[in-house]
Write a structure and sequence with these properties.
337 residues, Helicase, Ruva Protein, domain 3, Rossmann fold, 2 domains, seven-stranded mixed beta sheet, 13 helices, 9 strands, 15% strand, globular
Length: 337
């Protein structure tokens, strides 16, 4: 199936998995932003063009919800003006006030000078078009699982690859391991409208962020948060579906993380020497926490070959998304029990 084209706005709210890009060997010189006189940049497009030039000049790395300088610039401009990314094209030629322009230019300067992910600068990220609060206590969400919940769990067989469940309404219990900001747990609660969702994380700070997002969506009665080490937090509970985007960056990747990623919690990336330490634990323990007709949906980045070699007995079904190939797998409960 041909990929859908994306507008600037769509790119601005798209997610992207982190790549194990190597940091530059040469220290980066502090960027010197061009001074902008009042009235020189008038419209949203003017400010986006300026931001793209500065980001490209400073060799900014994009791996936190946007994939290129244009999408990142549109995202920051919209957030400064309290616009949803989907509204960018509607207001692209609108003029901004001097106060608004100052706010946007300040964000552009912070992005270049601090190398902080844009999501941290505005405390927001979008997944599947929905806004979520984020700060430095959590990794910036960019999981492919949100897209897969829509494409492979609708109960409608005409979807590419078919649906992995017959009826979303039949899912009564969902577990989200390594929940971070809680965005996947919230998306799961919306997809599986009859389900209660348990969300687990080892980080107390991450759970505080997740609690804020759960409250923002009024889901306190359906999404429960637990602090603990994977399945230890939920004792012997069983689930119809387990979803997880665990740490999976290997030792070499950790050493080469770009500066942007170093602002995020290291524990959210570090998957051990080959990146699969936590994934192995999940696979070895998940069978005891799944109902007979359940299954595990797990994102592991680019470790497919290693995982296939480590678990040759498992019928791992590798799922593709619009922006990924073979970075998420599905395995039914019967294969794990």
């Amino acid at each position: 199936m041909a990929k859908k084209s994306k507008s600037i706005a769509a790119k601005a709210s798209a997610k992207r998995s982190v790549g194990a890009k190597k940091a530059s060997k040469k220290p980066l010189k502090p960027a010197k932003l061009v001074r902008v006189a009042p009235g020189e940049l008038l419209t949203l497009l003017d400010l986006v063009r300026y931001a793209v030039s500065r980001f490209s000049e400073a060799k900014i790395v994009f791996a936190h919800g946007t994939t290129d300088p244009l999408a990142e610039a549109a995202f920051l401009v919209c957030e400064a003006l309290h616009l949803h990314p989907d509204q960018f094209e509607m207001f692209a030629t609108a003029r901004v006030t001097s106060h608004e322009a100052g706010r946007i230019l300040d964000l552009i300067a912070q992005r270049v000078e601090t190398r902080k992910p844009a999501a941290y600068l505005v405390n927001k990220i979008y997944m599947r078009g929905l806004p979520f609060y984020v700060d430095e206590r959590v990794i910036v969400p960019r999981s492919f699982i949100g897209e897969l919940l829509d494409s492979h769990f609708s109960g409608q067989g005409e979807d590419e690859g078919g649906s992995l469940i017959d009826d979303p309404g039949s899912v009564e219990r969902v577990l989200d391991l390594c929940t971070g900001s809680g965005c996947l747990a919230i998306l799961a609660s919306q997809k599986f409208y009859n389900a209660s969702v348990d969300a687990v994380d080892l980080s107390k700070g991450a759970l505080a962020v997740a609690a804020r997002n759960v409250s923002d969506y009024g889901l306190e009665d359906r999404v429960s948060l637990y602090q603990g080490d994977l399945f230890e937090a939920v004792s012997d509970a069983r689930y119809d579906l387990i979803i997880t985007n665990p740490p999976y960056v290997d030792e070499e990747g950790m050493a080469g993380l770009p500066r942007e990623c170093r602002h995020e919690p290291a524990m959210a990336f570090d998957g051990g020497p080959d990146g699969l330490d936590i994934v192995r634990r999940i696979l070895n323990e998940a069978g005891r926490h799944l109902t007979p007709d359940g299954g595990l949906l797990c994102e592991i980045g680019r470790g497919r070959e290693l995982l296939d070699d480590a678990f040759p007995q498992l019928p791992l079904l590798w799922l593709d998304t619009e922006d990924s190939e073979g970075e998420v797998f599905w395995v039914p409960a019967e294969a794990l029990q």
